[in-house]
Amino acid sequence: MTHTSPIPLPHLGGLTADEFLRDYWQKKPLLVRNAFPDLPELVGRDDLFELAQEDGIEARIVLEKDGKKPWELRKGPFTPKQYKQLPKTHWTLLVQAVDHYLPELAAYWEAFSFVPGWRTDDIMISSAPVGGSVGPHYDQYDVFLVQGQGQRRWQLGEKCDSHSPCLADTPLRILKDMPVTFDEVVNPGDLLYVPPGLAHFGVAQNDCLTFSFGFRAPILSHVLEQLVDAALESAGTDKLYADPGLTPQAHPGWLNPVHLQSLKAQVLDLLRDHSRLDAVLAPFLSEPKYSDYEPVGDDISPEDLLHTLQSGALLCRDPASRIIYLGEEGHADQLFINGEAVTDLPDSRFVAKLADHRQLGWEDLQDWLADADNLEWLCQQIAQGFWLIMGEEDDAE
Ligand code: SIN
Ligand code: CO
User: Fold this and answer.
1) Mean pLDDT of 40-51
2) Rounded to 10 degrees, what is the CA torsion of 59, 65, 67, 72?
3) Summary mean pLDDT of the chain
């Protein structure tokens, strides 16, 4: 089903989702002033430095100057002692997947819900003192850069690829040279969309935080690997090249291109069974960012769930889990979470509603939860950690 979104979105500068996707997505950059006025308040510098000390966190520090050599890369988690030894300027702390730890931040993904959920990656946040940057570079993925506290000067360049010359002697891929096509200083709440491959260079003008809403796209050769594995498993060794239409050839040593073509076509036919391949691709596309991720849930009774939602608590999708469905749009006939199929689903529209949103409240859920199967199933899902309850009365005590 195609779906048009005629509503102008303030965080896209008044563009509708249709217009943004048609004119900008994967094509050209977009700057929107004051797109998310409240976002900068959500995470401060100290929160980020604390998070980067936690086990299991993916954090890096990039030191342009005063390291062992220019553009040194240090990997976290970090200790307060390491922070104290940092120079005054020209470095950046980058923390991946901050949204996995903060459902309030993950809720901002709703602003980009016109892009399918399986394309979202994570929200990285960087913190830098004046002069801090990760150098001129390009990324392979789409990113919405939202300025948190402080100011950053963004320069954009041209489209790049793996042949674009980079600096030697650093683990970072820093462009040797970036002809500037755009030059703006962004303020808290401003948004800059950067399409894949476009060179960009952001330099902190003062103590500054930048939120990167990053997308992912599967590497096509990895998808092919999935398809080939599935095809090999199903074809086994029973299927052989067949040539019932063979005609005589005068030179038996000749490898006839027609026969080669037929062999290739028969092999490609092994990859054409769509229902079997969907059954492989959907779990693959639902794999979480971190393959060792195991959600932790809480037991809750149906009565307690109803009570807590009625009292104003919110049901949030686990930000670190990836949840997608197959079926018609808005009807989850098959559900996939973190690489696994989930069986015994209740009402397909209820499951789709849960999978389509980051946060739902009593108003959104009450009609659905009047059905005992839906309610029971949701309690099981919460116990497995795929959905969380936020803002419970107990939290406030
Ligand atoms: C940063 O936040 O410093 C860098 C983000 C990016 O360039 O992708
Ligand atoms: Co970048």
Assistant:
1) 97
2) 50
3) 95
Q: What is the pLDDT of residue 156?
A: 98
Task: Enumerate domains of the chain plus CATH numbers.
Answer: 10-215 (2.60.120.650), 220-243+254-280 (no CATH), 302-396 (3.40.366.30)
Q: What are phi and psi of 295, to 5 degrees?
A: -65, 155
pLDDT for 303: 98
- Residue-wise pLDDT for 256-286, tens only, equals 999 999 999 999 998 887 777 778 899 999 9
- pLDDT tier, 310 (very low <50, low <70, confident <90, very high otherwise): very high
Which residue, by CA, sits nearest to atom 1 of ligand 1?
A: 126
Choose the residue to mutate in 143, 145, 146, 178 for probing ligand 1, maximizing ligand atoms within 8 Å of C-beta: 145
List the shell of residues around ion ligand 2, using CB closer than 5 Å: 139
Which residue's structure tokens are 């602003």?
Answer: 111
Burial class from Cβ neighbours inside 10 Å (0-12, 13-18, 19+) for residue 336 reads buried
Write out residues with Cβ below 6 Å of ligand 1. 92, 126, 134, 139, 143, 200, 202, 210, 212
Q: Which of 274, 273, 152 is nearest to 207 (CA)?
A: 152
Q: Which atom of ligand 1 is nearest to the CA of 143?
A: 8
Q: Nearest C-alpha to atom 5 of ligand 1 is from which residue? A: 212
